[in-house]
Amino acid sequence: MSHRLSNVSLQVLRKYLQQCGCEYQRAKGGHEKWVKDGFTRPIVLQSHIDPVPERIVKQCLSLLGVSRKEFERALEEL
Asked: What are phi and psi of 51, to 5 degrees?
């Protein structure tokens, strides 16, 4: 089943980040900061927008080094 990246809920993306080994660091001004060992940049989510905009999901996948197909398979398991 193909998922649209623009329909990913904030809750699902949070679960996925945790599954990938990311840790919630803090929230400030409607944004959440997620970090992972070995990453030079944090992953930043807008916590006041649900579902998460497609460009944010794509940025997260790019930073994690995950393909869209891998992400779609993981969504089926969440």
From this structure: -75, 165
